[in-house]
Every structure is written in structure tokens, then in C-alpha cells.
Amino acid sequence: MKPKISFKRKTILIAAIPLTLLVFFYAVVLFILIKNDGSSADPLYSGPIIPSEEQQPIQNSFGHSTEAMDVVKGLDLTGKIIVMTGGHTGTGREAAKAFLSVGAKVIALAPDIEWAKSNLKGLKNVEIEYLDLLIPSSIESFTQKFLKSNRQIDILVNSAGIHNTPLQRDARGFERQFATNVLGHFELTVKLIPALKKANGARIVNLSSRGHRLSNVIFEDINFEHTPYNGMVAYAQSKTALSLLTVKEDELLQKYHIRAFAVHPGPIPTSDLFAGSMVGYSPEYKVNLSKLLAVTLRTFYATEILNFLRRPKNIGDIYKTVKQGGATTVWAAVSSDLNGKGGLYLEDCNIAPIVPIDSKAPFGVRPWALDKNAADKIWKISESMTGIYYKE
What we know:
Blueprint: H1 7-35, H2 68-71, E1 81-85, H3 90-101, E2 105-110, H4 113-119, E3 126-130, H5 136-148, E4 155-158, H6 176-191, H7 193-199, E5 203-207, H8 231-253, E6 259-264, H9 273-278, H10 284-299, H11 302-310, H12 322-325, H13 327-334, E7 344-347, E8 350-351, H14 372-386
Parallel strand pairs: 1-2, 1-4, 2-3, 4-5, 5-6, 6-7
Antiparallel strand pairs: 7-8
């Protein structure tokens, strides 16, 4: 006669199964991330830096490992209104938490209201509004509602985005990454200019990426109608375009005391960006699995473990946590070091240096992302594609 297994032991055994699977899954993901990452073998970069009066790093106490909360210590943002896309997930959520901790009101724009409510639960002074960057009517609806409230916008943070997706097109026929990352934010920004003017000292923060180094804007074929599609190239051109829009926004709006900055948040393997990017083409269970994976990686210190195992030589290759990833966004929005400046590309809570186009530097901005002629061109293209024209 077999001995009976106690209820307590059965419970432990049943609980051990999903825990074992979780540990196995966690280990497999770490292995894949390390295997597909070659940065640990890259030598310390010692290549050229292009001199620039504007894109010149400054001396401050922040750096690669600074967290969003570190940036706002000692500040008081009471009465400030901050409008954010992507403020409910990943690095955007960490930036939002930092703003809220020092008295600001955050208006979080999200295509998934329930996800936003869940992620921002318990945070005070937050308004959540529906906005889908791929749906122009939702942008129009929010902006009209906000402008009718007669409130100012002190800081507009364009943080949402999608990354390396399969070739898809929006209802207008535009490539999905460009439509989301660039055109949606262009339309939102232009329509909110009256509210930005009211602040008499507003800032626009556009989330670019180090990925911009992989491609300039493919001006002759932005929508990949003839060019073979590559998801990372499409992502890269969208991030270059955002940097160029930053240059043009700053040029056009600084006379109204509105300054614009582009931000590289850092390499962040535990971001919600990957889950958000899957919405619209992957089954819901895959999206939810990706969300769970990101939370699991954050909970069990995956970033720290990966950095320990990888040991990259270049600071720019060291992975950031989402708390660290939100820091440069916050610094761009509130730092007095940036007073009187604008049209700049920022990283690691500092002004990034310019490096050559063919440079292998794991930091810095490539010249094509700051080119003023290209900025004029992408502005006109964005106006034409959206049908939204800026008038003084």
C-alpha cells in the first residue's frame, strides 16, 4: 500500500511546477539575450568625435546609471501640467512617477485604458485619456478636448513607440512604425502648440533612440513600397525622423519660449516596448506573455545579472533598468542646465557628442539626425502625409 501524500506536500509540489517552469523560462531568455548580444566583445571606443558648439556635453552630477527619481530631487513642479504618450509603461511610467513625486499633474495618453489604469493605479494627480497614435480621429478628439479646457502644457513628452515590427500599414497606407512613432506624434504636437504657448516656457521631449544610427530617413521611399522591408531599418528611420522633427520644432517655436529635445533613453532589455509593439498583429496571449516576461525580468534583476555576465567595455553598451531609462526623459523636461538651449539630442542625462556616420561608437548622435535641411524636409513630408499644416 502506497503512503499517502499530505495536503501540504501536494500543495508544495503543485506550486513547484510553475515555479520551475518560470525559472527555466527566465534562464532561457537570459541565455538568448546574451547569445544575441556582441557588445561584450567590442573594444573600448576611441574613435573621432565631431566638434560642435551646440552638441557639446556638459559637466553635471548625472550619468548612465542615474534614475528618474534622482533627477527631480529638490525640485517642485506643483502646478505644472505634463502630457505624455507612453506614460503608463516602461521608462515612460518611471518618468511619470518622477514628475508626480514633486507635484506635477500628468496626463497619460494611452490606446489601452485598462492597461494604463492598472499600471498607474495608486498614483495621485494622474489623468488618463484615450489616444491611439495610429488613429488620427483619436488625436483630434483629445487635442480638441484639451484645448477647450484652456489649460497650458508645460511639458509634452512623446514617449510612446513601436519597435521592429513586421511590415504593416495603417488605414492611410503608411508604414506602421513611421505612422506611429513619427506621424502620430507630429500631429499631436502641432495640434497642442496653442497650449504649449500658454506655458511661456514649455518643453517638448521626443523619444528617439541610439537605433537611429542604423539608418537615415529613406526620403525616396519612406513607406517601403519599393525598398525591401527590414523592421530594424524602419525603426531606425523613424527615430532619425523624430530627432529631425525636434530640430525643426525648436527652430519654429523657440520664439514662443518653447524648446524641443530628442532623447535616447538607453539600451533597456526589460522595457514594455516589445509588448506594446506586438499589439495589432500578435494574438492577445502573446502580448500578455510579453508583458509578463518584462515584469518577470524586472522583478528578478535581469538587467543587473545581464550586465554582470556580459561585462561590456563601453558605458553605452551597459544595459539600463527602466528606472534608469526614464532619467534622461526627466532631465530633458526639467533640467535648468538646458535653459536657453534646444534642438539637441540627449543621452545619459547629458548632451550627446556628434560621432561620424560610419562610427561604431555605442553612444552619440549621427550627423544625419541633426541636419537642418533634412529637418525642413521631414517637416514638410509630415505635413503632407498627415494633412496637418502648421500656421503661425
